[in-house]
Design goal:
The protein is α+β, with helices and mostly antiparallel strands and 286 residues long. The chain is built from eight helices and nine strands. Among the domains are: 85 residues, Sandwich (Immunoglobulin-like); 56 residues, no CATH class.
Length: 286
């Protein structure tokens, strides 16, 4: 009796295993497409899992994926930025259908307020701020340039050419201070001249009037703008003045027409020669 029972149990186990293998091999592979429920746009990189059979995959750039699934299997689809979709018993499916559509609803993540702080305390802020290296402004750059210039000049100079020192109390600025002021004045003049050249030049005159070469230079001299006006005014104001001067310049050229009438030389008047005879002195006077 016992051998018969054992044989029946073994036979039942073999049949169940064979049925399981057969069912796994015969599960159809179905194609799905995951879309945004609001915009109907495909969702890429979404995760699809057949929970019942432990099979998973991800969607392609067009939202498609293929997975083995049959009626009664649980399908779970998740994607970042969307609510997950779980179907406990999906199906039935038909292999004749091109693909099935799955819609996911967009999800907004609410995050708690985050506070960023570089300094853990006020004392650390003061310490790091005091050690902070700020960018130099134009005045600091000018002073640095002047200092380098004088340092190089002094190294290259012969000591005998230096101004002789004086004993006692000295009044006024020394030689180095005066040279520094002269250099700073020259640098300031060059800077202003450069600003003026950028605001008023032949290129700008050509754009507004069409003049080139000598004609442009003559018109620029005709404008006779002061350096103060060119330096302190903006580009728009200067261009307006150039156009006004150009209209006046053209009007003057129209009104001033050349006179081609022949030049008549005035006739010279003949001087009357008077002769006076002095009898007494015997001298003729003209």
């Amino acid at each position: 009796m016992k051998p018969l029972v054992a044989l029946l149990i073994a036979l039942a186990s073999f049949q169940s295993l064979s049925a399981a293998d057969f069912s796994t091999d015969t599960i159809p592979t179905i194609t799905f497409q995951v879309l945004n429920a609001e915009t109907k746009e495909p969702i890429s990189m979404a995760h699809a899992i057949n929970v019942s059979r432990g099979k998973g995959t991800i969607t392609d750039m067009l939202g498609y994926f293929q997975i083995p699934i049959t009626s009664g299997d649980s399908l779970k689809v998740t994607a970042i930025g969307y609510f997950e979709m779980v179907s406990p018993q999906w199906g039935p499916f038909s292999t004749d259908t091109l693909f099935y559509t799955i819609h996911l609803n967009p999800r907004i993540y609410e995050l708690e307020g985050v506070r960023f702080s570089r300094f853990s305390s006020y004392q650390r802020f003061l310490k790091e701020f005091a050690a902070l290296k700020l960018a130099k402004d134009k005045n600091a750059e000018t002073e640095n340039l002047v200092a380098k210039y004088f340092a190089k000049t002094i190294r290259d100079m012969a000591m005998m050419n230096l101004p002789s020192g004086t004993s006692g109390i000295s009044f006024g600025k020394d030689w180095y201070a005066r040279q520094k002021e002269k250099l700073e004045e020259q640098l300031e003049k060059e800077r202003k001249a450069d600003v003026i050249r950028k605001k008023f030049n032949e290129v700008i005159v050509n754009e507004l009037t069409g003049l080139t070469g000598i004609s442009a230079n003559i018109f620029m001299a005709y404008c006779d703008f002061s350096e103060t006006f060119l330096y302190e005014s903006n580009d728009y104001s200067i261009r307006i003045r150039i156009v006004e001067k150009w209209e006046a310049y053209k009007q003057e050229k129209v009104n001033t027409k050349p006179d081609f009438s022949p030049i008549v030389k005035p006739k010279k008047k003949k001087k009357d020669i008077k002769v006076e005879v002095s009898v007494q002195q015997g001298v003729a006077k003209y």
